[in-house]
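Sanity check record (used in CI):
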Amino acid sequence: MPSSGITAVDAAAKGMKLERYASGGALMLRRATSAKIVSASSHLLFRATVLATLALVFLFTLHYPSLLFRSFHLSAGGGGPGGAHSASHRSLLMSSSSTSASYGGAAWEKEMRQSARPSRDGGISVLVTGAAGFVGTHCSLALKARGDGVVGLDNFNSYYDPSLKRARQALLASRGVAVVDADINDGLLLEKLFDVAAFTHVLHLAAQAGVRYAMEAPQTYVASNVAGLVSVFEVAAKHADPQPAIVWASSSSVYGLNTDAPFSEDHRTDRPASLYAATKKAGEAIAHTYNHIYGLSITGLRFFTVYGPWGRPDMAYFFFARSIVAGEPITLFRAADGSDARRDFTYIDDVVKGCLGALDTAGKSTGSKSGKKSGPAPLRVYNLGNTSPVPVTRMVAILEKLLGKKANKRIVTMPSNGDVPFTHANVSHAAHDFGYRPTTSLEAGLRHFVDWFVQYYKLDIKIAKGARSAADKPAKKKKAAAAMSAAS
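Expected output for UDP-glucuronate 4-epimerase:
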């Protein structure tokens, strides 16, 4: 009995152990199966994510190849027009570490230092971005002519014909100004330039221009006018030693839907009418931030419809001239109330004087690489205009007279594409602070433009005689003729 009782208990115990073992084994089996399922799902999700990423990269590369692939080189100075740079519109957005290694070496550094070295006592050393652009070329020539050091930077994108930019580059090279073929978003290159040359000033003119084009390529404006501006400020604030003073190109477009005339720097600028205007307004806010945090001396210049020789083909006066010569129709806009659009046309020589005046009166930056500031740095904004708005129809009439040919005009109501009915500059602040006074009438300025236009494009046109302003001196015309001859 006792032994049989012990056997029953043992058997019962063994049965319980077997039952627990069986249930535990089932639980372990379920857990193992779940782990395998989770692992398989994770692998499947990872593979799906990789495939999706590759697909997105492929599609992005297919539609926006210029944002991923780009090559740069240092211009030798002469640079003929056209070439590989004419083939495609190179993006303004790029990796800051992709191409800087292509610059450097003793010869390159020597060229940069030589171009940046002033030739006069007390001269300044200026990095000019957008140097092969319209305003950039004229400012670079003026700085070099008075004995300042100048190094240019331009990416030669094809927003308009790059061959015109290459011709400007050739003109600059003939005057001893080196222009680096690169992008302002290449931070490492900017750092290298500041390591090689101790720039006292930056004249930042590089930007994606044009009001209507922003409706077609909005990212380009953000990449250049916002990201590019930040790139310049970053290097100037955190790398350059000492920090340079910065003068940069804002725009009269920041006044947007403002109807108070003339436009004053004290007027509101919170109602931009285009993305281009919004990026310039954003630039002014960014400038305030870098001035406040890093002690950068920053001056913003609001340009009002700049025109003249070596101008931009996308500007109305330029493509109107081309259309008149070719016998093609031109489109003129009228405001909703039936009035003609009016612009404060400002001749390039007057704008150059304003840019140089802003550079000469810019206070020193007060920050350091450590982030410490020795005091508040200047933060300024100025209008640079002609102060005399003119109907666009009047501008066309002057071109018709100079070119000896009537335009085939088509007048339509101004669309809501970012254009504004009129612009009108109040320049009293610039006049007070650095003596800015525009002197060139629209008639005289357009005559200078047409002189250049006919010669540059080798047109068989006898330019009609027209009025000249008191500011048009023979010496100035000889210099302009010499400049045009060098470029042609």
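The chain is about 45% helix and 10% strand. If this sentence no longer matches the regenerated tokens, the check is flagged for review.
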